[in-house]
Amino acid sequence: MYTDLLFYIDGQWTAGGSGNTAAVLNPSTEKALGQLPLASSDDLDTALAAAASGFETWSATSAFDRSGILRRVAALVRERHALMAECMTLDQGKPLAESTMEAKSAADHIEWYAEEGRRAYGRIVPSRHAAVRQLVVREPVGPVAAFTPWNFPINQAVRKIAGALAAGCSIIIKGPEEAPGAVIELVRCFHDAGVPKGVLNLVFGNPAHVSDYLIRSPVIRKVSFTGSTAVGRQLGALAATHLKLTTMELGGHAPFIVCADADVEAAAALACALKFRNAGQVCASPSRFYVHDDVFDLFARRFTELAVQLKVGDGFDPSSQMGPLANARRLMMVQELIADARDLGATVLTGGNRIGGTGHFFEPTLLTDLPKQARLLNEEPFGPVAPLLRFNDLDSVIAQANSLEYGLAAFAFTRSLKTATELGNRLQAGMVSINHFGLALPETPFGGIKASGHGSEGGTEGLDAYLTTKFISQAGL
User: Fold this and answer.
1) Which of 54, 268, 409, 410 is the S-S candidate for 427 at Cβ 3.0 to 4.6 Å?
2) What is the tens place of the pLDDT at every residue in 152-196?
3) Residues 291-323, buried b or exposed e (16+ Cβ, 10 A)?
4) What's the 3-state SS for the chain?
5) Which residues are catalytic?
6) Domains with residue ranges and CATH for the chain
7) The overall pTM is greater than 0.90
8) What is the pLDDT of residues 33-45, one digit of tens each?
9) pLDDT digits (tens, 9 = 90+) for 340-364
10) Per-residue pLDDT tens for 46-57?
């Protein structure tokens, strides 16, 4: 079951006024699911006016009352998660089990912010004069423009929406044109829970036009973007021109380090699970596997065995463990990266080919013997491709792990507390997970450094992103 493809502006579901549409395709069948309206400048003006009005209403609503509404939203998401999951598998392609997990987790994020929004505390600063009182208060920054990608349609949208609303901001969110269904159903939960009109607005459209138009508007005071580093640089520069706050969650190329003393079986199992989740289309997915010489052959053999066993197929097939790539662009890019590696002498341990002629299915792929100049080691692969590389000492592997401009996530396996501590201290990433996967929980910050962006979503940091600080110094008459 798919959803009606509409905007949500000023409390109303609408197709807008432009008449322009784009087909939404099922990546498993390449057949159209429906026609998505694309916003005109007039539609965006309506959304901006609604967000301005909604901010006046919502910022004046107590944190306690905002929390109550968000709790109702979370309850509706739990009731309706199955429909959101079905929409996601239809237009994004991931297996239904993964879609269901993502849809269910949205409620956890909303509940976290519902509680955290009640704890946006200020403080009193002791004064040098008895007649003066000094207060620091936290206030919502204002209307927000948020831009979300197609790889995790609900996960990326809900962090921005819940964080902004918990802080007292209104928001215009531009959802992913290629995977809009689940976002529409998520927004419907906010509407049905009683979020006042104008507080939350959802549009779709030409990405370059919508982002440029919204960021330039004097109504917008904060920009939150999740997507590629290249686009993030452009939007960040535009926002800086207008002195607007930004949160940028950009690309990654995460190292996965397996030390000589690691539990190789556990490391290989997690490597396979993380690398091929969502067909590798995960910004924090491990994408450079550095394995110590002493355990390289054992790790490579086990990783290959697990990859070969994965069932690739339509997301609605209960036996499918990996779905298709989300679009033809990703399929082409993965093929180009593998061809480049092969031309440079890389060895393919398994995979390397498209599956069938219909749908964007691709084999889970492992390669080794790659030279440093291979594109796969320098460009974010965003697909089901894992390059395996050898190392001999900790200093050299840390240097290799830190050698790229990216700094989103890093993973490591070791039984040594000393080595684990050194890796945690020296790896240049916004998130480091050692001996397990410990990222992306509602209560923990999610974000990167260097070319992987700045700012965090999740945790107390995710609420702080939508608040400004005001200092009030008040003297008695």
Assistant:
1) 410
2) 999 999 999 999 999 999 999 999 999 999 999 999 999 999 999
3) bbebbbeebbebbbebbeebebbbbeeeebbbb
4) CCCCCCEEECCEEECCCCCCEEEEECCCCCCEEEEEECCCHHHHHHHHHHHHHHHHHHHCCCHHHHHHHHHHHHHHHHHHHHHHHHHHHHHCCCCHHHHHHHHHHHHHHHHHHHHHHHHCCCEEECCCCCCEEEEEEEEECCCEEEECCCCCHHHHHHHHHHHHHHHCCCEEEECCCCCCHHHHHHHHHHHHCCCCCCCEEEECCCHHHHHHHHHHCCCCCEEEEECCHHHHHHHHHHHHHCCCEEEEECCCCEEEEECCCCCHHHHHHHHHHHHHHHHHCCCCCEEEEEEEHHHHHHHHHHHHHHHHHCCECCCCCCCCCECCCCCHHHHHHHHHHHHHHHHCCCEEEECCCECCCCCCCECCEEEECCCCCCHHHCCCCCCCEEEEEEECCHHHHHHHHCCCCCCCEEEEECCCHHHHHHHHHHCCCCEEEECCCCCCCCCCCECCCHHHEECCECHHHHHHCCEEEEEEEEECC
5) 249, 283
6) 7-250+452-475 (3.40.605.10), 254-442 (3.40.309.10)
7) yes
8) 999 999 999 999 9
9) 999 999 999 999 999 999 999 999 9
10) 999 999 999 999
- Tally of CA atoms within 13 A in the half-sphere of 437 that contains its CB: 17
How far out from the chain centre does Cα 457 lie? Answer: 9
Residue-wise pLDDT tens digits, 377-426: 999 999 999 999 999 999 999 999 999 999 999 999 999 999 999 999 99
